[in-house]
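Structure in, sequence out. Go:
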């Protein structure tokens, strides 16, 4: 009984004293923000057709759908062109800043607002990866995903955790005014109240956090907030892992029930669809071998079904994880689904070993140091000869 109590106390201490998986949460943040940012940048020329008020899925159709399902979308607050451009621009900006890790607490919220607003505006524009991104953008809000590999972490190292901060309060005030304006106009709570209520709770929480950090005379309130934040982060990270396992488990078991997956020919058919054949020659080369098609079909099902059960064995899990990431990379090239593959790879990254991620960070740091040193070794242009005595005197004085 004493051993059990000791194990429980150690587990509770581990969950409450630190935010687990800092590198995993950081790579998930970088992966999903990069996926959404690249998608938005690629679709800038087509943004009107995808999400604009005059697109095929026009504003009236979207309003009827959202009136029925109660989904949150800031694009439904107005059918004006200027408002659409502002929301689209906010989605791009928040994705870029979240990728860099600048004010990750606030940017993760704006990132969620951008994803939900655009995706709920036009629900038929995804390829499967949008569903994963839709869920993960909500989970990311509850994580402390800026502990490493972020501008926030660099600022904390340079200035200290409790250094005076003017940007944070100003950003908090601006976001608060936006919330008050949207609520006062009756737009924020038009549909399902979950997301609007979440926005208010998060905004108030950030205010309480800042007030305690700056005004508390003892350490107890700070410690309490840290414990709560760690518990919420660890719970959200567990939900992200469970969601990834659920995606693979359901996909694998549904495939088993299909006759084409049972006879080993399922992979053959998408390779010959024009929509999924950006490289017809490569698709023909893969589908020309019946053995290759059979192996890929059965291998896909086996990996997806087995993966959730391999989490108890680190070595087997890492092998299957590498296989799944490779599979998604192949899907991105062969089937022309880059953003679906990037979203799934970002979800898979939560299972990457910490040692591997730290090694990757070391490689990136050394590569950046080499580039910086090479730039510093670039010879400067020779000084310009002075044209008169006055210029010579000024240069000497300086």
């Amino acid at each position: 009984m004493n051993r059990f109590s000791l194990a429980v106390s150690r587990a509770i201490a581990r969950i409450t004293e630190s935010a687990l998986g800092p590198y995993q949460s950081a790579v998930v943040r970088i992966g999903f923000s990069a996926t959404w940012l690249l998608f938005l940048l690629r679709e800038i020329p087509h943004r009107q057709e995808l999400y604009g008020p005059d697109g095929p899925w026009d504003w009236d159709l979207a309003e009827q759908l959202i009136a029925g399902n109660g989904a949150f979308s800031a694009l439904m607050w107005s059918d004006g062109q200027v408002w659409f451009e502002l929301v689209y621009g906010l989605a791009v900006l928040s994705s870029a800043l979240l990728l860099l890790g600048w004010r990750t607490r606030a940017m993760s919220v704006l990132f969620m607002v951008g994803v939900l607003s655009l995706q709920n505006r036009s629900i038929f524009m995804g390829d499967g990866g949008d569903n994963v991104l839709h869920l993960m953008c909500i989970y990311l809000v509850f994580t402390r995903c800026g502990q490493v590999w972020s501008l926030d972490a660099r600022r904390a190292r340079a200035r200290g955790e409790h250094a005076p901060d003017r940007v944070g309060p100003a950003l908090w005030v601006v976001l608060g005014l936006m919330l008050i304006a949207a609520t006062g106009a009756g737009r924020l709570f038009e549909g399902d109240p979950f997301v609007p209520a979440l926005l208010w709770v998060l905004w108030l929480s950030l205010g309480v956090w800042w007030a305690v950090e700056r005004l508390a005379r003892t350490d107890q309130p700070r410690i309490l907030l840290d414990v709560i934040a760690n518990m919420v982060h660890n719970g959200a990270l567990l939900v992200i892992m469970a969601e990834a396992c659920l995606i693979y488990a359901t996909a694998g078991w549904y495939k088993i029930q299909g006759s084409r997956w049972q006879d080993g020919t399922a992979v053959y058919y998408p390779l010959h669809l024009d929509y999924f054949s950006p490289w017809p020659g490569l698709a023909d080369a893969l589908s020309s071998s019946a053995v290759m098609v059979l192996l890929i079909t059965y291998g896909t099902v086996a990996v997806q079904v087995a993966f959730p059960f391999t989490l108890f064995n680190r070595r087997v899990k890492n092998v299957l994880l590498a296989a799944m990431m490779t599979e998604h990379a192949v899907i991105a090239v062969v089937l022309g689904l880059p953003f679906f593959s990037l979203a799934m790879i970002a979800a898979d990254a939560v299972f990457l070993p910490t040692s591997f991620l730290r090694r990757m960070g070391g490689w990136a740091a050394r590569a950046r140091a080499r580039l910086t040193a090479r730039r510093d070794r670039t010879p400067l242009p020779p000084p310009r000869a002075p044209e008169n005595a006055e210029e010579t005197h000024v240069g000497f004085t300086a």
